[in-house]
Amino acid sequence: MLRYALKRLLSLCISLIVASLVIFAVIEVIPGDPASVRLGINAQADTLATLRAEMGLDRPLPVRYWDWATGMLSGDFGTSYTYDTPVADMVADRIGVSLPLAIYALMLSTVIAFPAGIFAAAKRGGAGDTAVMGATQLGVAIPNFWFAMILVLIFAINLRWFPSGGFPGWDQGIWASFKALTLPAIALALPQAAILARVMRSSLLDMLGEDFMRTARAKGLTRRQALWRHAVRNALIPVLTIIGLQFAFLLAGGIIIEQVFYLPGLGRLIFQSISARDLIVVESVVMLLVFMVIVVNFTVDLAYAAVDPRLRSRA
Amino acid sequence: MRSLVPGIVITVAVILLALVSFVWTPFDIESLDVPNKLLSPSGAHLLGTDHFGRDILSMIMLGARTSIAVAFVAVGIGLTLGIPLGLWAAARRGSLLDEVIMRGNDLIFAFPALVIAILITAVFGPSAVNAIIAIGIFNIPVFARLSRGAALSLWSRDFIMAARVCGKSSFRISWEHILPNIANLMIVQGTIQFSLGILAEAALSYVGLGAQPPTASWGRMLADAQTLVSIAPHTALVPGFAIVITVLGLNLLGDGLRDWLDPRLRVARL
Questions:
Q1: What is the secondary structure of A188-210 as a DSSP string?
Q2: CA–CA separation, A72 and B17 (whole Å)
Q3: B248 vs A141: CB contact, 8 Å cut-off?
């Protein structure tokens, strides 16, 4: 297990280094010098040079990469060009919206998908199965931002149960914030729930054909008992991986949903920074998102290996 | 067969709609007709008009063109780069090259696709072409991984062994024997990626990073409709349904093709 963990840790580090190099390289290609954007087109050459030096833009690329990468490791994400505040503070503010939203959506997705998937597998081939599968077909075809707009139309504009957008802030009370995140979380969760329900169903169907299920029935368990005690637990293993992948998707997918609901999360921060040519913010937020995705996948891999010893030898 | 037929019907209908728009649309969408803005669906405007008085049906037809073009080229990028990479990795299985290709794939998978698509379009400016590139890049590892896996299982088969005994190079074996045998699998996956491409294009143009006006696009129509949804719900409903129906049709087509091309899979479908 330790050998496997170390091996995965090494590949985690390599992924992070390559990812940071790619992001840094891509951002450096962006046309437009942040210093001249800040000063406008009439800037004097010497003022420009001074500002460039102040912002550290005159140093060689490898030095700038090294400073940025090591800075991020110690929690220093640089200083925003446009707001002149530390990027880390801006990110800390925004992540308080994006992360709870992703977790909320993940919980909803799991809560919907598990019973749906298990039900469909148990009623395999029957009307219930067909209905659930039809619903999941529809679920994966609906763009989440459009679903979000429909939710707003029904539950915010017509029924007035939830706010149509905006975020009051956690200091305004947990209930109000929770309410503001509910529609976005449902919109994010729906397509993911559809995928998860399908995985749950097919994973469970694989298990139902296993020898141990026949043994379970032979020793006198009812179909239902065998399903819950043996099949569901084993079927959860592949489902775990998908949940890990989904968390990554929900974090990133939140970017679009945040636009629909005007939520002040990381997604809106990225868009604002892109239009303001605030490269350091874009760079750091993208790196942070990639970092979270890679770390979540790493954790899932380890959890997977811990649950299923067969995987360790295979790696 | 129960998904193949509806899948074909819907897909062909959407493609026809896009093709017809080259020669005819009910109205000219470039001439604004502001007095007739936000009309509900009626005899004159079957799907109503938008905030500039443009005919929504005409815009849906033109938008179908954008969606199909973007998704089609993006899948093309994935197919033409991903499959050769996958076949190459499979031909040199276990080598350093194989390792590099597969780890490279893992790396692309580790990036949240949407974030990188946003990054690319932010760097090179929003346009349909950059949306294609952004979506296309994420199709490469999908096809590379799938074709490598499928090719690996073929390499141990007797008929490949026979081809090697005949002195064929691994390039010729990949091209003449492996590729035809994995083509079905690639077509099915291509259909699925196509539908994902349509969704991705809609999302990118919704946030303003896809096709730019005056090019019509479903995602952009939804972005325009967002502030109007309470006074003119049809402006948001129609483009949304266009996306859902198209994606649903392609998914059904993919499922149907899989069953049709590979009877063994008919029993064990997801």
A1: HHHHHHHHHHHHHHHHHHHHHTS
A2: 50
A3: yes
